[in-house]
Design goal:
Layout (H helix, E strand, L loop, with lengths): L2 H10 L28 H6 L16 H17 L3 E4 L4 E3 L6 H11 L7 E3 L10 H14 L4 E3 L7 H4 L4 H9 L3 H12 L5 E4 L3 E4 L10 H5 L11 H8 L1 E2 L6 E3 L6 E3 L1 H11 L3 E4 L8 E3 L5 E4 L11
Parallel strand pairs: 1-5, 2-3, 3-4, 6-10, 7-9, 10-12
Antiparallel strand pairs: 5-6, 8-9, 11-12
Helix pairs in contact: 3-5, 3-8, 7-8
Length: about 300
C-alpha cells in the first residue's frame, strides 16, 4: 500500500476498533523525572476536559504547575535526538495555533494518549487565543506518555516569531508580572524540541520542508540541542520551507526565510534517502490536507476555521 493511502485511512476514516475505556487506561504518574515541584498529573490532565464549550475560557495554572510541567517536559525533550524515530501506527497532526477547543475535540474524537500515538508537526502557539493551554496539555501528555506523544518544533516555536505573533502577548496579558518568566520557560522547552521524525524508516516528517544544504539525515539527527533561534542552515530551512509546484528546483522563499522547492527536488530527495513520503505542515489547506500530484509529499493543517478561512 502506498504510504499516502495509509495516511488517508489514518486521517479520513473512522476506526472501528474499540477504544480502551477510560477506567482501564494506564494511569500517568503523579510526578516524574527530577522536577523540584510536585504535581498530580492525573488531576492536572483531567482539568483540561472539565469545561468544554465554544469560546475562550482560560485555564488558571499555578506557578507550581508551570514549573513542574515545563521542567519535566524539557528534560524529556532534551534527551531526544533532533531527528527522532517513531513507530507506526501514529496519528500525525499539523498546525494547532492556539486553538485549544479543537485540540480537545480531536482527542475526544480520535482518542487520548496513550490510546493513540500522536506525532505533532509544530506551530502550537500564536494566532489563536489559547496557546498556553495547548502547550500545557501537550507537554503534560509528553511527560506522562513519552512514547505516545511526539512534539516537533515549528517555526512559531522560536522566540523571535512568537514574541511577534501572539504568544508573548498572551503570556503577559494572562500572567502579568510572571508572564515574561513563563514565556522564557516555554522558549527553553521549544529550543529542545526535535525538528524532524522518521516514521517506519520511510516517512520523513517536519514542520516546513526540505533544505538544499541537507546531505544526510544524520546531519539533522546529530545536531546538538538546544537550538536557539535558528536563522539559517538546515534546521531553519526545515522549519520554514514550502513546496511550490510551479517550479522544478529551488528558489528563495517569499516568507523571507527558508526556500521553496519543486517537484524535481521532492523526487530526488525521496530517491536519494529511500523515502516513500514526506509529511509536513506550515501551510493552510482548505480541506485540512493537500498532496502533490506525485503523492510523495503530504501537507497537513489541523486548525479548523483558521483566521475564519476554512472548516
Amino acid at each position: 500500500m502506498h504510504p499516502f493511502q495509509h495516511c488517508k485511512e489514518l486521517f479520513l476514516q473512522k476506526r472501528s476498533t474499540a477504544r480502551t475505556p477510560r477506567s482501564r487506561r494506564p494511569p500517568p504518574p503523579k510526578t516524574l523525572l527530577k522536577s523540584i515541584e510536585y504535581l498530580d498529573y492525573p488531576e492536572f490532565l483531567d482539568k483540561h476536559y472539565e469545561k468544554i464549550e465554544p469560546g475562550i475560557h482560560k485555564i488558571h495554572y499555578t506557578m507550581t504547575e508551570y514549573r513542574a510541567v515545563i521542567q519535566d517536559a524539557n528534560l524529556l525533550l532534551s534527551s531526544e535526538k533532533t531527528l527522532i524515530d517513531v513507530d507506526p501506527p501514529v496519528i500525525i497532526v499539523g498546525d494547532i495555533h492556539g486553538q485549544f477547543n479543537d485540540l480537545i475535540n480531536m482527542f475526544l474524537l480520535i482518542g487520548r494518549p496513550p490510546e493513540r500515538r500522536y506525532l505533532f508537526l509544530g506551530d502550537y502557539v500564536d494566532r489563536g487565543m489559547m496557546s498556553i493551554e495547548c502547550m500545557m496539555l501537550l507537554l503534560a501528555y509528553k511527560v506522562c506518555y513519552p512514547t505516545s506523544v511526539y512534539l516537533l518544533r515549528g517555526n512559531h516555536e522560536c522566540a523571535r516569531v512568537n514574541k511577534k505573533y501572539g504568544f508573548w502577548n498572551e503570556c503577559i496579558s494572562h500572567l502579568g508580572d510572571q508572564g515574561e518568566t513563563v514565556w522564557a520557560m516555554f522558549q527553553r522547552c521549544f529550543n529542545n524540541m526535535p525538528v524532524s521524525a522518521l516514521v517506519a524508516t520511510k516517512i520523513l516528517c517536519m514542520h516546513g520542508g526540505l533544505s538544499p544544504s541537507l546531505e544526510s539525515l544524520d546531519d539533522v539527527r546529530n545536531t546538538i540541542k538546544p537550538v536557539r533561534n535558528p536563522f539559517r542552515g538546515v534546521i531553519n530551512d526545515m522549519l520554514w520551507a514550502d513546496p511550490d509546484m510551479s517550479i522544478l528546483d529551488w528558489r528563495t522563499s517569499t516568507r523571507g526565510s527558508g526556500f521553496a522547492f519543486g517537484s524535481h527536488v521532492i523526487d530526488d530527495f525521496c530517491e536519494r534517502f529511500g523515502l516513500e513520503l514526506i509529511v509536513r505542515a506550515h501551510q493552510m489547506c482548505l480541506d485540512g490536507f493537500w498532496v502533490t500530484p506525485s503523492k510523495r509529499l503530504l501537507t497537513l493543517f489541523s486548525a479548523p476555521m483558521y483566521c475564519n478561512l476554512y472548516r
